[in-house]
Specification:
Layout lengths: L6 H10 L3 H5 L2 E3 L2 E14 L9 H4 L4 E13 L2 E10 L12 E13 L2 E8 L1 E2 L7 E2 L1 E2 L4 E2 L2 E8 L5 E10 L15 E10 H4 L8 E13 L14 E13 L2 E10 L14 E12 L2 E11 L43 E12 L11 E13 L25 E19 L2 E13 H6 L7 E14 L4 E12 L5 E11 L3 E11 L9 E11 L2 E10 L2 E5 L2 E5 L2 E11 L1
Antiparallel strand pairs: 1-2, 2-3, 2-31, 3-4, 4-5, 5-6, 6-11, 7-8, 9-10, 11-12, 12-13, 13-14, 14-15, 15-16, 16-17, 17-18, 18-19, 19-20, 20-21, 21-22, 22-23, 23-24, 24-25, 25-26, 26-27, 27-28, 28-31, 29-30
């Protein structure tokens, strides 16, 4: 531990101190193939009185490091792998429970013809994930890897069957240390391609596949924790379809879950439901996407007392737009498992080239709209409040939107190539963000942040290897912390170097003393599959989301080093 500071140096030497073929190539022989990857994220912190970070805020934490290294071995039908992780200490914004190091994942797998079995840790998903999804997201500090057994069987072309059994990862805590406080997850999934199974359908222009899933969580009832009688077996099932004909694609999934009282839903005994439906049409120069989603009491965890992101059995995808620009992503939407209804639509059109509006190279226009409300909830009896603990909770009309708006956004993007070397994109976004609901968990909340965001993105190709990109952003709001302006300048020398400088400036803040600059300077170097980047600056406080899963990121100031490689 006392020599931990040497780790980034040693990793850099390993990556860049040897010929590229010794690092990036796979070790292949008659004895099998070895492959792997690693990543190390290191931050050095410093007090910054300007943005309110004092020595007491740091609590003696001078640096943090998140790192992993994984190695896989494959020989014929057999494969195995291990993954080592270290959080010493976890980076700012990650749960303290991640602190530690050791073998996080290990597995062995055997595949023969139509049969595939995995023992140990694995990730998988049934359909869109409404009843089961196991995955990790390194940047969020999210990992619900299964530990157990997975069997896959494809008896004939067009039929795929899966079965899973095991427990979920919970930071560094072993299931054997707390068997009464964590559930066992069991599941079956089947997918059927009717075009491959039905004689005469193989060459049909209409393609149809069906799927179904069943998942059960077993968790012991412990009256010393919850005073009510808890169901020990909680089952969930789902059905799905994918229909394709020509340029049209239609897919949907519906899921149902038996009563599952938990801390997430205030221990009510209502059944859960979730549905998602999407339609897409595409042709040359035109794309249309329409989606709708309804979620009703569909939190599904392998520990009923858990309230954070950990131990999620399922995944509730968001249908709102996931913004890439920093200010547009300042107010991201997080899926509300206790109840939400949403619709979204997007049209992408390319104005033909060599026209007045399209210009010499054509112009791309995208218009997106999204709206999310709560669901309609009514009391089950005049004397019983909605969501009262130990009751059925409420009743709800499946097709009716609730009165409370959770989120609304509209985004217009225009992208045009002005010359072979110059491309420009402009974006306007309007957001209506229910702070009470999304960040405070108040279902009938009425504190809204309304924001207008503009983005200008210009890329200039200087030569075959050199390019310059300028990104300008502006956010205007009368709520929260007021207006923001941001600028980023990036210079790249392909295929090796990249440099960047950026600043986010908060002005018109209702608190005059809280008008700050959040600047960052950075550079990076790439060699084959190896990458190193170094940056120095400030990180504003905010919410980081990926796919509707979010975590809070506190303000920080200091140096950040990232090293990654694969072989």
């Amino acid at each position: 531990m006392k020599h931990l500071y040497l780790a980034p140096v040693l990793a850099t030497l390993l990556m860049f101190g040897f010929p590229s073929h010794e690092v990036a190539g796979q070790e292949t022989s008659d004895k099998g193939t070895i492959s792997g990857s690693f990543q190390m994220d290191v931050q050095a912190y410093q007090p910054d009185s300007t943005i309110g970070i004092t020595e007491s805020d740091l609590q003696g934490k001078k640096a943090g490091m998140n790192a992993f290294a994984k190695i896989n071995y494959t020989r014929g039908d057999f494969s195995a792998g291990i993954r080592y992780e270290a959080f010493l200490k976890p980076l700012t914004g990650y749960e303290d429970a991640w602190e530690g190091q050791g073998i996080a994942n290990r597995f062995i797998s055997y595949r023969k013809d139509a049969f595939d079995i995995t023992l140990g840790n694995f990730y998988d998903q049934f359909g869109s994930g409404l009843v089961f999804r196991s995955y990790d997201e390194w940047n969020l500090g999210y990992d619900n890897a299964m530990d157990g057994v997975r069997v896959r069987f494809d008896p004939v072309p067009g039929i795929s069957l899966k079965s899973i059994y095991g427990t979920q990862r919970y930071y560094w805590q072993s299931y054997l240390d707390e068997p009464k406080r964590r559930g066992i997850v069991r599941g079956l999934d089947g997918e059927f391609s009717l075009n491959m199974l039905v004689k005469g359908w193989q060459d049909s222009k209409t393609q149809l596949s069906l799927g179904g899933s069943f998942v059960s969580k077993y968790e012991r009832d412990d009256p010393t924790i919850i005073e009510y009688k808890m169901p020990e077996n909680v089952g969930a099932m789902a059905g799905r379809f994918v229909l394709t004909r020509g340029r049209l694609n239609l897919n949907g999934e519906y899921a149902w879950k038996v009563n599952d009282p938990s801390a997430q839903n205030k221990y009510i005994y209502r059944e859960g439901r979730a549905a998602i439906l999407s339609a897409a049409y595409s042709q040359k120069g035109l794309g249309i996407l329409v989606s709708a989603k309804r979620v009703d009491n569909f939190s599904y965890k392998s520990r009923r007392t858990e309230v954070g992101n950990a131990l999620e059995i399922n995944y509730l995808p968001t249908i709102t737009k996931q913004h890439a620009y920093s200010l547009a992503a300042m107010y991201p939407y997080a899926t509300q498992p206790n109840g939400e209804m949403g619709i979204t639509g997007q049209i992408i059109y390319t104005i033909p080239k060599k026209t007045r509006l399209g210009g010499k190279y054509g112009t791309s226009v995208s218009l997106q709209y999204g709206l999310v409300h709560g669901i309609d909830k009514k009391a089950i009896h005049d004397t019983i409040p909605i969501n009262q603990k130990g009751t059925l909770g409420y009743t709800s009309d499946f097709f009716r939107f609730g009165k409370t708006k959770y989120f609304e956004d509209i985004t217009l993007e225009i992208s045009r190539k002005l010359s072979p070397a110059l491309k420009i994109s402009a974006q306007y976004t309007y957001l209506d963000y229910n702070f009470d609901v999304i960040e405070e968990g108040i279902e009938d909340g009425h504190v809204f942040y309304k924001a207008h965001i503009g983005v200008l993105d210009i890329t200039q190709k200087i030569s075959d290897k050199k390019s310059l990109r300028l990104e300008l952003e502006f956010l205007a709001t009368k709520q929260d912390s007021g207006n923001w302006a941001a600028a980023t300048l990036e210079y790249a020398v392909a295929p090796r170097w990249f440099f960047s400088v950026s600043d986010q400036y908060n002005f018109n803040n209702p608190v005059s003393d809280n008008t700050y600059h959040y600047y960052t300077f950075g550079f990076g170097y790439i060699r084959n599959t190896n990458r190193i980047s170094l940056s120095y600056g400030r990180q504003r406080e905010g919410i980081l989301c990926v796919g509707g899963i979010c975590r809070n990121v506190p303000a920080s100031s200091g140096l950040t080093l990232t090293i990654s490689s694969s072989f």
